[in-house]
Amino acid sequence: MKTKIVFLGLLLALFTISCNKDKEENAITSDEAMANSKIDIASDDVSDIVEGQFDATMENSTSGKTSGIENAAPNLPACVSVVRTPAQGTPITAGTLVTKTITFGTATAGCPMPNGNILKGSIIISFTYQPTATSHTINYTFDNFYHNNIKFDGNKTFTRTLSTGTNIHPIVVMTMDMTATFPNGNILHRVGTRTREIVAGYNTPLVFADNVYQITGNWTTTFPSTTVQTSTITSPLMVKMSCIAVNKPLLVQGVITFVRNSHLATLDYGTGDCDNAAVFTLDGVTYPITIGN
Q1: Which residues have C-beta within 8 Å of that of residue 102, sequence separation ≥ 6?
Q2: Is the Cα dihedral 23, 27, 30, 36 positive or negative?
Q3: Phi and psi for 10 in degrees, rounded to 5?
Q4: Residue 162 domain flag
Q5: pLDDT 10s per residue in the chain (293 long)?
Q6: Does residue 264 fall inside a structural domain?
Q7: Residue 292 included in any domain
Q8: Is 256 helix (H, G, I), strand (E, B) or coil?
Q9: pTM
Q10: Is residue 293 situated within a structural domain?
Q11: What does the alpha-carbon distance between residue 41 and residue 289 come to, in Å, rounded to a whole number?
Q12: Domains in the chain: how many in total?
């Protein structure tokens, strides 16, 4: 099995929008947009880690990891420990339930990831080992888990399948139901789905720069005021790893549409160029913005 991991958390960077409409009651404010982005970053970091651990077991059912996976998954630094049941070193047969507890550093210091995010606590994943299956379900939950001092509770389920035809590649559908508690006490609840697939570069597992990912999905976020905001990827998001070479953001194309009460906003990432320009539109008024990498 070939695997490539993308730190999409690095791609959906925080952005600041300066406009008078931010101050309107019930509008989509910049603070809430930033909170949403922080949840996106955490969700993508967790997704990368979980998928990497699943692939590690599928490639080597005895140790649960291979040198190839370790080289392709730099999201697991030395301060991360993984405990597997059945234990590493025990051969796994088809139909065995596998559980992995991924713990990040200590309860006080946590574990700094290569992308700069600090994780604390544990993620517990479980799946049934079926090496010949074309579809797998992976469940995971949080145990006192923090991402950059934001506490996450809840669970997700991955359904991982391989496409058919000549361009075979993995398609991962993520269903999510999670609660994020921020340091200031604000609690946001997110429910939805997100589909990620690698549409180019899968057949060259040792070359990371040629990867291109496509992302679709939709979700709702409930804010402390009980206001519900709907987010939908209305034009597929495209991620080009080759943009690393020019030190530009990797998310280069696609549109996310936000709906809240009577307000409509979109974030347009462009047409595929490796640049840091995007366009935010709120209630028909457009604002050029600069995204980070």
Answers
A1: 49, 53, 80, 81, 82, 122, 123, 124, 125
A2: positive
A3: -75, -20
A4: yes
A5: 333 333 333 333 323 333 333 444 466 666 776 777 788 778 877 877 887 888 888 877 765 554 433 333 444 788 999 999 999 888 899 999 999 999 999 888 899 887 678 999 999 999 999 988 989 999 999 999 999 999 999 888 989 998 887 778 889 898 889 999 999 999 999 999 999 888 888 888 777 778 888 989 999 999 888 889 999 999 998 988 788 777 676 778 999 898 988 889 888 989 999 888 888 888 888 888 776 53
A6: no
A7: no
A8: strand
A9: 0.76
A10: no
A11: 19
A12: 1
Maximum CA extent, the chain: 61
Cα–Cα–Cα angle for 238, 48, 122, nearest 5°? 150
What secondary structure, in 3-state letters, does 82-137 show? EEEECCCCCCCCCCCEEEEEEEECECCCEEECCCCCEEEEEEEEEEECCCCCCEEE
Domain of residue 119 covers: 8-17+29-252
Give the phi and the psi of residue 38 in degrees, each rounded to 5: -65, -35
Angstrom distances, CA of residue 265 to CA of 14, 192, 198, 213, 262: 16, 19, 28, 24, 10
Peptide bond into 86 cis (omega under 30): yes
Count of other CB atoms within 10 angstroms of residue 16: 12
Q: Contact, 76 vs 70, CB < 8 A?
A: yes
